[in-house]
Input
Amino acid sequence: MSSTPIRILGLDPGLRRTGWGIIESDGARLSYVCSGVVTSDGADDLAYRLAELYQGILAVIAAHRPTEAAVEETFVNDNPRSTLKLGQARGMALLAPAMTGLAVAEYTPNLIKKTVVGAGHAEKHQVMAMIGYLLPRARVASADEADALAIAICHASHRASRALAARVAREAAR
Output
């Protein structure tokens, strides 16, 4: 008996470039659908850049109709301004799928790398190599796309345990 594949949108937020990748998961089998990058114009004011990202993500969702979404959690870097801007871009990456009714999951960078590569502190080239291995049809043009696909793969791997944990929490709340 085969189940219906789940179409997952992975989002790697960034103010200049937000990577996106879509896979289908049918149990343990993964297949590449498409990937790309949503960009914003660096000459625009922040509000308009965020609007560009939001609209771009909405366009990806409308065109490819994912059933679930996953977003990388923000890591704090040395520059507080950069961290804040990344957080605002991440807000758009969370808001766009939520506004279309998709379930949205969040994963830490270390969990994503550990799930895809086997090591939580893997390098970018290792992530890209594993994307090529796990999704042989993928034609990835940038690290942003590879990271987004890795986020989607992480979600495919952890979605059942997340659903179980949510069900247990709901039962405990009753």
About this structure: The beta strands are 6-12, 17-26, 29-39, 68-72, 103-107. The mean pLDDT is 89. Residues 22 and 75 are 23 Å apart (CA to CA). The radius of gyration is 16 Å.
